[in-house]
Amino acid sequence: MTSTPSPRSAPGPRVAASPRDAPAPQLSTPLSVVAVRSHRHRAPLLRPFVTAARRTEAVEYVVAEVELADGTIGQGSAAETVAVTGESADTISVALQGPLRSAIVGVTGTITELSARVAGALDGATSAKAALEVALHDAWARSLGAPLVELLGGRPGDRLLNDMTISLEDPEVMAGHAREAVAGGEQILKIKLGHDIEEDRHRLAAVVEAAPGVRLRLDANQGWVPEQAIDIITGFLADGLPIDLVEQPVAAANIEGLARVSAAVEVPIMADESVWNVEDARRLVEADAVDMLNIKLAKTGGLRGALAIADVALEAGVECMVGAMMEPRISITAAAHLAIAHPAITMIDLDPPFWFASDVPAGGYVQEDGWLRLLGGPGLGLERLRADVDPSGGDQ
Ligand SMILES: [Mg+2]
């Protein structure tokens, strides 16, 4: 393993399809799970997170904890995102304490066997599964004294350029937020688009004027039909907007429509809501429907499903982004290990912790001038988040 930082700068360069490192021999290490626990937290945001679909002022989330027979403890987390995964903090807790717990407590198996038991324990519940499967991976890597990224075949010193989301507000408010983000070192802004194209045009113009030199990622969240998407995106490009990619322009199920938009416009199109699992990824690449895939652990149910998508993408020459829900630092750190580990992943959209009033626990990663890098340490490299910690930073 090299420790030399090798910035993989995106947006832009297509990743060469190179063989990954051989699977880590530690994949065959048996792990005995003796306990699964969970605890809930509520974390206020610094300012409201606003998209066309919702306005969020605080995040409800659940921490999943796995204990191995040797006393090692691993953690993962999942946030309530009813509008996306259909899961609330209540349903996440119930899934963790019920079928997910039953699937692995008292079981001895390899990390892949235990992950498969989590995946098969119940239908759906992808973010609850992600929390537990990440906790298993954290425990696995901690018990071996290695950073998770290394066990996934990655180089811990690699860095990826992060972006910052600008909430959907009036143009002058968005311009102010963009100015602030660029002053803080951000190089790429992610803009959630609304329902009114003319208003969106004003918003984008205001952002670009306030933050010259910044790159834009646009997310339509399925808002358009294909012909409309082609007109709108072509119009944005004619306006000279510095757009790196457009995410999910049309309905998730409209694969043919995605393909039509991708073929018609001069900017990469990325699938998000259309890709939850490896079968979705295969369907999209076989139809040549998109240029990129957005992988999120809360959709895939954890790291194994995410790696399977990235493998399909690598083989097809499709680049991936790793994104996330509005989730806490444990989830985002797991996503960062995944992103840095896999060569098909060239972009990250992992700004949620910067929205939290109090970003706990300590460790995991740092960001400098937009570049995210892991801090090292066993597992995810995070301190344990205890049940009695108040993530609002207030007194108990
Ligand atoms: Mg999206």
From TrEMBL:
Ranges for domain Mandelate racemase/muconate lactonizing enzyme C-terminal come to 171-268
Which Gene3D superfamilies does this UniProt record tie to the protein? Enolase-like C-terminal domain (3.20.20.120), Enolase-like, N-terminal domain (3.30.390.10)
SUPFAM superfamilies found in the cross-reference section:
Enolase C-terminal domain-like, Enolase N-terminal domain-like
Annotated keywords: Isomerase, Magnesium, Metal-binding
EC number of this enzyme? 5.1.1.-
A Pfam family annotated for this chain is: MR_MLE_C
Q: State how the cofactor is bound.
A: Binds 1 Mg(2+) ion per subunit.
Q: What are the start and end residues of every segment in region (Disordered)?
A: 1-26
Say which domain of life the source belongs to. Answer: Bacteria
**What does the record give as cofactor?**
Mg(2+)
InterPro entries from the xrefs?
Dipeptide_epimerase, Enolase-like_C_sf, Enolase-like_N, Enolase_C-like, Mandel_Rmase/mucon_lact_enz_CS, Mandelate_racemase_C, Mandelate_racemase_N_dom
UniProt family annotation? Belongs to the mandelate racemase/muconate lactonizing enzyme family.
Instruction: State the protein's name.
Output: Dipeptide epimerase
